[in-house]
Amino acid sequence: MSVQLETAQKILLDLVSVMPKEQVVLQDCWRRILAETVIADMDFPPFDRSPLDGYAIIAEEVAGATPANPVTLRQIDYVPAGENPSKPISTGTACRIMTGAPLPPGATGVIRLEDTVSQEERVSILSGGGAEKNICLQGEEISQGEEVVAQGTIINTGVMGMLAALGKSRPYVFRKPRVALIATGSEILGIDCPLVPGKIRNSNSYMLSAQVAEAGAQAVLLGNVADNIDEISRFLETAADCDVFITTGGASVGDYDLIGEVYKKMGITLLFDRVSMKPGMPVLAGIRAGKLYIGLSGNPAAAAISFEQLVRPALMKMGGRKVWWRPQIRAVLASPFMKKTGAKRFVWARCWQTDANILVEPLHRQGNGMLKAAIRANALIVVPENSPPLSAGTEVEVILLADA
Ligand SMILES: Nc1nc2c(c(=O)[nH]1)N[C@H]1C(S)=C(S)[C@@H](COP(=O)(O)OP(=O)(O)OC[C@H]3O[C@@H](n4cnc5c(N)ncnc54)[C@H](O)[C@@H]3O)O[C@H]1N2
Ligand code: MOO
Fold first, then answer.
1. pTM of the entire predicted model
2. Which atom of ligand 2 is the closest one to the Cα of 297?
C-alpha cells in the first residue's frame, strides 16, 4: 500500500502513545522530557537577600551621600552568606553584609563596598543614591504555588538549575522509547570486520543510532543479519523490551527484499509499504501487540530521510515532547537545484544568514546510496512534488537540523 508522506506521518503519530514515566536522579536528566508539572513549594529567593557585598542600611538616610559629604553610620552587625542577621537596622546604623546573605529587618537598601570607607566600628557612605534597588526580594523570581516548568518541557540547562533550586532531586521524566536497530543484507559486515569483495560495512545502524539519540530515544543495536526470512524474524523477536523495531535493507522489490515477507510470517499488520517521497520511497511500517515495526531502505540517505520524516516525529511523541516537528524557514537558493521532482523531495543543504536574507545551498552529492552530503548539512530543502528545476534565487522551504 503506497501512501502520501503526510498520510504515513499521521498513521504513525495516531498509533503511538506517550511512554510511562520514571523517576531519574537530576544529574542524569539533561535533555530528558519532564513528565510532571513542577509547582514551586517555596518562594525563590526564599528570603530577602543582598545582591552585593556591602552595607545594609536605611536607604532614605544615605540617599544624599557624596564623597564630599559622606554619611557615617555605626556598624552593628556582620552577616556572611549562610548566616542570619542578629540585629535590626535602625536610624544611624548599618550592617556589613555579603552577597547572598539575608537582609536584616529594618534595612531598605544596600550600598556596595566600593562606595564606602570603613574604620573600626564606623562606615562612611560616599555615594548613597539608588540603594533601595540593591535588594533581591523574597519570591521575586518565583512565588510558592506557581507553576514553574510544565509537563512535556525538555530539561535544558535552565530547567536543570531550576529543578535543583526547588529541591527536585529525582524528577519524573518520560521513559525513553527503546528502539531496536537491525541491519539486514547478506552484503553487510560488522564495522570491525575486514572488508572482502562484494561486501560493505554496516553504516546504517550507527547513523540511525545517532538519529535515535537525537530524537530523545534509546538505540539498541542488534547487529546485522543476512537476507533470510527466518533469521530476520529471529532477530526481530529478540529485544522484547524494545518499543520500536527498525530494520534497514530489503524494503524494495528485489529478489532479496524480504521485510514484507518477514512481517507476514511474524503476524505484523502492515500499515504501508511505500511512501511518496524521495529519497526513501521504499519504507514499510507495521504494528503488532502495540509495538511499531519500521522497514527502512538500505540506501543510507533514503534510510536517514525516512527516519527523519516518519520515525522521528513518532519517537518525539512517544518521548513526551509537545512539539514533534523541526523548525522550518524560507530561504533563498544560493545555487540551482536542477533535478525535476515528481514526489516531494528532501535535499541535504547548508544554510547561512547574510545581511539581506538566509541563503541555502544544496550539497553535493545527493545520491540515495550516498551520505557525504549529510556530513555538512545543517538543513533539508523541501522540494514540493511536481517541481521544475529550481534556479538560484528561488525561495524554498527549509527544515533546520539541529547542532550543525
Ligand atoms: N526495480 C527496482 N529497484 C529498486 C527500486 C525500485 O523501485 N524498483 N527502488 C530503489 C530505491 S529508490 C531504493 S532506496 C532501494 C531500496 O532498496 P532496499 O530498501 O531494498 O535496500 P537494499 O536493496 O537492501 O539496499 C540498498 C543499498 O543500500 C546498501 N545497504 C544496505 N544496508 C546497509 C547498511 N546497513 N549500511 C550501509 N549500506 C547498506 C546496500 O548494499 C545497497 O547498495 O532500491 C532501489 N531499487
Ligand atoms: O526512494 Mo529511494 O529511497 O530513492 O532512495
1. 0.92
2. 3
